[in-house]
């Protein structure tokens, strides 16, 4: 199939966490400069959460507003913030996702990946079950990034950017994760944000490799699509038919002055609609 990329927004430092709003636009953040933004299909962009830095993931909340990562997991609605989880001890959160029961799954980041003097410290995956209540599902994730589920929610996928692969765990009937395995190792670049389509394909942003990739449910690479940015950070499905990929970057190789960009790309398979947080 032909892939026609369309640039939508530019001029940011490190765009991350794209999330379709279910209506007429999507959210994204500038992790380095701060701020969470909403961009409509009419081309209007506004800053809805000024200054907040270090955000790596955004989810919708069933009661309105959004749930964001960073120094804590926070529900922001009509200008009011409600902390759902914080760990302290220097830990922060990167990518997040949500199951059909409305429980967020959040990855911890325990070192600064942009500081060469910060020793790599593996993080964990937590499932939030109530305000201030969370269960550690597993540990030893070198550098936590994208999180997603298979269509039947029996498998959870998790990007480990430090080790260059996507982890997979089977979710047992009691909610524990078993059968840890490498789902796919990227041939180049580091796996960053990911999303899953209705056929069970896993799409991943290949940071440092100027592309996005799709892996079949058995872990076979079947698409490798060039993006005009070396640092591709994340992606999500959107639009009424969920057949548009929205892709964020931290640079633009065609014009460096554009900085971080948001692109869109029509594809021939629909993405899974994200569930809403219910905590």
Give a short overview:
The protein has 279 residues and is an all-beta fold. The chain contains no helices and 24 strands. The N and C termini lie far apart (41 Å).
Helix and strand layout, with pairings?
Blueprint: E1 5-12, E2 15-20, E3 25-30, E4 36-40, E5 45-49, E6 58-60, E7 66-68, E8 73-77, E9 80-85, E10 92-98, E11 104-109, E12 123-130, E13 133-141, E14 144-149, E15 155-160, E16 165-171, E17 177-185, E18 190-196, E19 202-207, E20 211-215, E21 221-226, E22 232-238, E23 244-249, E24 260-266
Antiparallel strand pairs: 1-24, 2-3, 3-4, 4-5, 6-7, 7-8, 8-9, 10-11, 11-12, 12-13, 14-15, 15-16, 16-17, 18-19, 19-20, 20-21, 22-23, 23-24
- Please provide the count of β strands: 24
Average predicted local confidence, pLDDT: 96
Q: What does the overall shape look like?
A: globular
CATH superfamily: TolB, C-terminal domain
Order of secondary-structure elements: EEEEEEEEEEEEEEEEEEEEEEEE
Give the low-pLDDT segments. Answer: none
Estimate the helix proportion, in percent: under 10%
Q: How far is the first residue's CA from the last residue's CA? A: 41 Å
Biggest β-sheet description: 4 strands, antiparallel
Number of domains: 1
Stated plainly, the CATH topology is called Neuraminidase
Residue fraction in strands:
over 45%
């Amino acid at each position: 199939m032909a892939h026609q990329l369309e640039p939508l927004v530019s001029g940011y430092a490190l765009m991350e966490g794209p999330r379709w709003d279910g209506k007429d636009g999507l959210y994204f953040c500038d992790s380095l400069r701060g701020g969470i933004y909403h961009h409509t299909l009419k081309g209007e962009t506004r800053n809805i959460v000024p200054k907040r830095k270090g955000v790596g993931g955004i989810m919708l909340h069933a009661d309105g507003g959004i749930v964001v990562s960073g120094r804590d997991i926070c529900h922001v609605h009509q200008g009011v913030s409600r902390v759902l989880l914080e760990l302290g001890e220097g830990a922060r959160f990167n990518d997040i996702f949500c199951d059909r029961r409305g429980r967020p799954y959040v990855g911890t980041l325990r070192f600064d990946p942009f500081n060469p003097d910060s020793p790599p410290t593996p993080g964990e995956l937590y499932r939030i079950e109530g305000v201030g209540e969370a269960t550690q599902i597993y540990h030893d994730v070198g550098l936590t990034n994208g999180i997603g589920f298979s269509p039947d929610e029996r498998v959870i996928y998790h990007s480990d950017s430090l080790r260059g692969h996507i982890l997979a765990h089977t979710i047992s009937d009691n909610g524990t994760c078993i059968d840890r395995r490498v789902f796919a190792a990227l041939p180049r670049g580091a796996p960053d944000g990911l999303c899953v389509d209705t056929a069970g394909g896993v799409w991943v942003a290949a940071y440092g490799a100027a592309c996005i990739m799709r892996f079949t449910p058995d872990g076979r690479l079947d698409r490798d699509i060039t993006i005009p940015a070396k640092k591709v950070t994340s992606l999500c499905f959107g639009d009424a038919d969920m057949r548009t990929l929205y892709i964020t970057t931290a640079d633009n190789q065609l014009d460096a002055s554009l900085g971080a960009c948001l692109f869109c790309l029509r594809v021939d398979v629909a993405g899974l609609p994200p569930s809403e947080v219910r905590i």
